[in-house]
Structure formats: structure tokens, C-alpha cells
């Protein structure tokens, strides 16, 4: 009787906790989809005369400062300040992902010159393949046959989209019409492949560090963003030409980018700590729909019927991976 009573009274409570966690993860991942999907269109929306009017280095620097301040405030509010006295051996590993993320954050802005937002969003899903390969080889995680098949389909989707958008010249087409089509240059394709490899390497390495150390996540974020701030500050100093002020060209849209990317970085650390880098990448894959919708609504991007093929292939790949 006691056993039956405990099971019946405890099961609803466990069921509610289970659903509560699912709702929390759903909100978190949905927010990441929205933020990531809006990033490239917002950058394009800030362009003046085809050029980004603000310094990408100052923007990334402000993002790192925001994440650092939020992490420090969280650490203070939770009363974990004693954990700051960690040995150097625990702190040093955070310099590696900070350097990789700093490079990629600047690369994202640069790539907008060589491709439209939806092309970047679709091709950036190739990071699923690079991350899975590193995830399997570096972390020793075994992937099922269906999961490798999903990655092959995803690679095929990237090839289809690249093939359909590499031809940029159309007879009789005006400059405004050309800018509203899906397009990517050969140089843009090279940059996005470099971006995907570095992204996969940084995600796998960061996941390993976050999960191998029993430290508060806010403290781990603090270490990560201290290095990130230092590296991006050096990048900003090197990029200074004396012709552009720190906040020159900033608008409400740029500040929205700063806030969104800071929040996305903090949410990403939660996913890597308690989930996996693969989960993060499928969030990015799903955000393609948000990206395409915003590109159509804000930028007048014309989505051709062929665009549905790689989009459907990415959806199928995500389904097979988590089947």
C-alpha cells in the first residue's frame, strides 16, 4: 500500500517537472531560433550605400562587454564569488574558444558582403556536418547510421543551394533586382566553409571544457568572456584607422543586434553545458525559416521555387538525426 501510494502521489509531481523542463527548453531554443534567424537580415538592414556603416570590431566588443557584465551580475546575485579563486589551470582553457569565437564573430559581418542573408543562413548549416565529425572524433560520441545519413542529406542541401546561387550575372537585370536574389560569390563560399569548421571546433571544445569542470556556469561564462573581451579589444585597436568613432554609424537596429547576440551567447552556453553542440546547430538550422521570412518582409528577397529543395532537405535531415 505504501509503495502504491508513493508512486501515485509522486508521479504527477515528476510529470509536471518533466513538462516544466520541456517548456523551459522549448522557450530557450525558440528564443535562440528567433535571435539567430534575425541576425543576418538585421545586419543587412543597417547597410548604407551597400556598406555596413558601423565598425564590426566595436560591435563585437560591445557584445562581449554585455555578456561579461551579465555573467558577473549573475555570479554576484547567486553568491558564488568564492569560486573566483580558481587555479590558473582551470582558467587557461577558456582562452581557446574565446579566440575562435572572436574570429568567427567578425567573419559573420564580413561574409554579408559576399552573400545574401538567406544564402548565409542555409550554408551555415554545413556546420552541423563539421561539428558532428569533430563531436564524434574528439568527444568519442557514436552516431547512428540514420544520423550520418542525415548529415549527408544536409551536405547535399548545401551543395544544391550553392549550385543554384553561384551564377550572379543575369542579362538585362538591374542592380536593384540583382541585390534581391539569392546569391553567393566563390569567395563567400570559401569564407562560409572556414566559418563552419571553426564554429564546429569552438563548439566541441567549449562543450568539453564546460562539462569537464564542476564550476558555476556564470563563472565559466565570466572566464570565457574575459578572454573574449581582451581578444576583441585587441582586434578593435588593430582595426582603428582614426576615421571612424567607436559608436559611429550606430542605430536602434545595431543596438538590437548587440543585445540579441549577447543574449544568444549566454543562452548558447546553457545549451552546451546541459545539452550538446549538435542541439545548438539544429537550432541554427530551424532559424533558416525565420531568416527567410524576415529577408522577404524587410529586404524584399525573392525566394525561388528551387530554394524549397534545400530547405526541405534540411528539415528531413533534422528529423532523421533526432529520430
TrEMBL record:
Pfam families from the UniProt entry: Nuc_sug_transp
UniProt keywords, alphabetically: Membrane, Sugar transport, Transmembrane, Transmembrane helix, Transport
Would the keyword Isomerase be found if you checked this record's keyword annotation?
Answer: no
Q: Which GO terms describe its molecular function?
A: pyrimidine nucleotide-sugar transmembrane transporter activity
Query: Where is this gene product found?
Result: Membrane
CC terms in the record's Gene Ontology section: Golgi membrane
Transmembrane intervals: 23-42, 89-114, 145-164, 184-205, 217-238, 250-272, 281-299, 305-322
Topology with respect to the bilayer: Multi-pass membrane protein
Does the keyword section mention Repeat? no
Chief subcellular site?
A: membrane
The protein depicted here goes by the name Solute carrier family 35 member A4
Q: Which organism is it from?
A: Oncorhynchus kisutch
Identify the taxonomic lineage of the organism of origin. Eukaryota, Metazoa, Chordata, Craniata, Vertebrata
Q: Which gene encodes it?
A: SLC35A4
Amino acid at each position: 500500500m505504501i509503495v502504491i501510494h508513493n508512486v501515485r502521489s509522486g508521479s504527477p509531481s515528476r510529470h509536471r517537472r518533466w513538462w516544466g523542463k520541456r517548456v523551459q527548453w522549448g522557450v530557450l531554443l525558440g528564443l535562440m531560433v528567433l535571435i539567430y534567424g534575425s541576425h543576418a537580415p538585421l545586419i543587412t538592414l543597417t547597410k548604407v550605400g551597400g556598406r555596413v556603416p558601423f565598425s564590426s570590431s566595436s560591435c563585437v566588443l560591445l557584445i562581449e562587454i554585455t555578456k561579461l557584465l551579465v555573467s558577473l551580475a549573475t555570479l554576484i546575485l547567486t553568491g558564488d564569488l568564492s569560486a573566483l579563486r580558481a587555479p590558473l589551470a582551470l582558467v587557461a582553457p577558456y582562452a581557446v574558444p574565446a579566440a575562435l569565437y572572436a574570429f568567427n564573430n567578425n567573419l559573420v559581418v564580413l561574409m554579408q558582403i559576399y552573400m545574401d542573408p538567406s544564402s548565409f543562413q542555409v550554408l551555415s548549416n554545413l556546420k552541423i556536418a563539421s561539428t558532428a565529425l569533430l563531436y564524434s572524433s574528439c568527444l568519442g560520441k557514436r552516431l547512428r547510421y540514420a544520423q550520418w545519413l542525415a548529415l549527408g542529406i544536409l551536405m547535399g542541401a548545401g551543395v544544391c543551394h550553392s549550385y543554384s546561387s553561384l551564377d550572379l550575372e543575369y542579362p538585362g537585370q538591374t542592380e536593384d533586382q540583382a541585390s534581391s536574389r539569392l546569391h553567393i560569390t566563390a569567395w563567400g563560399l570559401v569564407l562560409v566553409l572556414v566559418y563552419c569548421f571553426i564554429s564546429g571546433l569552438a563548439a566541441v571544445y567549449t562543450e568539453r571544457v564546460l562539462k569537464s569542470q564542476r564550476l558555476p556556469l556564470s563563472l565559466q561564462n565570466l572566464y570565457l568572456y574575459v578572454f573574449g573581451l581582451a581578444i576583441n579589444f585587441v582586434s578593435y585597436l588593430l582595426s582603428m584607422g582614426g576615421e571612424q568613432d567607436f559608436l559611429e554609424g550606430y542605430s536602434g537596429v545595431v543596438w538590437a543586434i548587440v543585445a540579441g547576440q549577447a543574449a544568444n551567447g549566454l543562452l548558447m552556453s546553457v545549451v552546451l553545458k546541459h545539452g550538446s553542440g549538435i542541439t545548438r546547430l539544429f537550432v541554427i538550422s530551424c532559424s533558416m525559416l525565420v531568416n527567410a521570412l524576415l529577408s522577404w518582409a524587410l529586404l524584399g528577397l525573392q525566394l525561388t521555387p528551387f530554394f524549397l529543395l534545400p530547405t526541405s532537405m534540411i528539415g528531413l535531415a533534422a528529423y532523421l538525426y533526432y529520430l
